[in-house]
Specification:
There is one protein chain. This protein is mostly beta strands and about 400 residues long. It has 3 domains: about 110 residues, Immunoglobulins (Immunoglobulin-like); about 110 residues, Immunoglobulins (Immunoglobulin-like); about 90 residues, Sandwich (Immunoglobulin-like), CATH 2.60.40. The protein is about 10% helix and about 35% strand. Strands 13, 14, 16, 17 and 18 form a 5-stranded antiparallel β-sheet that branches. A hairpin with a 7-residue loop joins strand 21 and strand 22. The longest helix is centred in the first third of the chain and has 30 residues. It is elongated and about 120 Å long. The N and C termini lie far apart (about 190 Å).
């Protein structure tokens, strides 16, 4: 076969090799660009690479009240890296029991989780800038651990991945408190409100130790929520009553009786009593008794006036004779005034002579008829409208003209 001389024609293999390399490079570039576009075109919520870890609590404190342990501490606001926490962390309460008579802060007994408070409920435990958690002690906790140390620690958690470090350990020796008093009663007297109750006999694990004293707490009802039909002299007003202020301790008694003399009539008071049991060197209060609510009313009349005297004032010039009455001023501080009664028969009250209360202990009877014998009595009236019994009677008369003076 004849071939034309000149350059040789490329073979099919040498013609497709550069095209294949070019296509492979172009495909790689397109794939890389697509991956970049997918990762950057639709940004979403950033993924937390490192969990927030709250700072450790350092001010945990524990105190037993009744059969509860009250834990208080400050909730952390920052992370260990000094960044603000994005939300309130969850709270985890740990507890353990240690028989050793050593300070709880240096014991190394293991603690176990007894309570978890999710972030949504943390506000329910907030008091101003502090957290207050009530950790109850059951009979199963107390029966085998009387006099032991209960140690507490707290962790907080802002992420499921990692919690804070342990707080300081806080602890105390625990004992069973006496049962709450359930029969607190009130009685209003002239000098104050008398409280009485029965001594508690048991604890949640057995018999109650002797009470060394009783502590009395009182609060007042909010003014706009005073009971519509309050108690009288010896009753208690029932129903829910909002406290104007927290219960505050006002006194202590060594017997199951107490008299509160610092009260005002017409004001509503709420009382609670706590028994105090002595364990070793620990004086432990019980929980609050039943709340006794009472509104004292002044239904107590003042004492009768004393030393009523009647003096004849003879006629002078154009002035007719009259009878002048006087008596000792009442020593009571709420006296509004006095009344005077006149009768012509001993033992009969007669009628009142004054139309309005007398502001001073004196009265002039300008209407006495000469020749008649009169019997006078006086009463005292307090600001609540209570009128006293009648005084001892005093007699007097104006002689008829020409007759000798009595």
């Amino acid at each position: 076969m004849d071939h034309e001389k000149g350059e040789l024609a490329p073979s099919p293999a040498s013609e497709t090799r550069p095209l294949s390399v070019f296509r492979l490079a172009l495909s790689f570039c397109l794939l890389s660009s697509l991956i970049w576009l997918v990762s950057c075109a639709a940004p979403g919520e950033p993924i937390e690479r490192k969990p927030q870890v709250p700072t450790a609590i350092t001010d945990l404190a524990a105190q037993q009240q009744g059969n509860d342990v009250i834990l208080t501490f400050t909730l952390p606001k920052d992370t260990v890296e000094h960044h603000p926490l994005k939300k309130k962390p969850a709270i985890e309460i740990y507890r353990g029991f240690d028989p050793a008579a050593t300070a709880p802060s240096v014991t190394h007994e293991p603690l176990f989780l007894v309570l978890t408070i999710p972030p949504a409920l943390v506000t329910n435990y907030s008091e101003k800038d502090h957290i207050r958690v009530v950790s109850p002690l059951s009979s199963n906790d107390l029966a085998p651990h009387v006099g032991w140390f209960a140690s507490y620690s707290v962790r907080t958690r802002a992420s499921v991945k990692k919690e804070s470090a342990d707080s300081n350990r806080a602890g105390l020796q625990i004992y069973p408190a006496s049962d709450s008093i359930t029969d607190l009663k009130t009685e209003v007297t002239r000098t104050g409100i008398v409280l009485t109750w029965g001594p508690p006999q048991k604890t949640i694990v057995g018999s109650a130790p002797p009470m060394i004293s009783y502590r009395i707490y009182r609060a007042t009802a909010a003014p706009d929520l005073q009971p519509a039909a309050p108690a009288t002299a010896s009753g208690s007003a029932g129903g829910a009553t909002k406290l104007e202020s927290p219960l505050a301790r006002i006194g202590e008694s060594n017997e199951p009786k107490f008299q509160d003399m610092q009260v005002e009539f017409g004001k509503t008071y709420i009382y609670s009593v706590r028994g105090v049991a002595q364990y070793s060197d620990v004086a432990l209060e019980s929980a609050d008794s039943n709340l006794a609510v009472v509104t004292p009313r002044d239904v107590f009349p003042p004492a009768a006036p004393q030393n009523v005297t009647v003096v004849l004032v003879p006629a002078q010039n154009e002035n007719s004779a009259y009878l002048d009455l006087s008596w000792a001023i009442s020593p009571e501080t709420d006296i509004a005034g006095y009344n005077v009664y006149r009768s012509e028969q001993d033992g009969v009250p007669g009628r009142r002579l004054n139309s309005e209360l007398l502001l001073t202990p004196a009265f002039r009877d300008m209407n006495a008829v000469p020749g008649r014998q009169y019997v006078y009595t006086a009463t005292a009236v307090d600001r609540a409208g209570n009128e006293s019994l009648a005084s001892a009677p005093a007699s007097g008369s104006i002689p008829v003209e020409g007759q000798p003076k009595p």
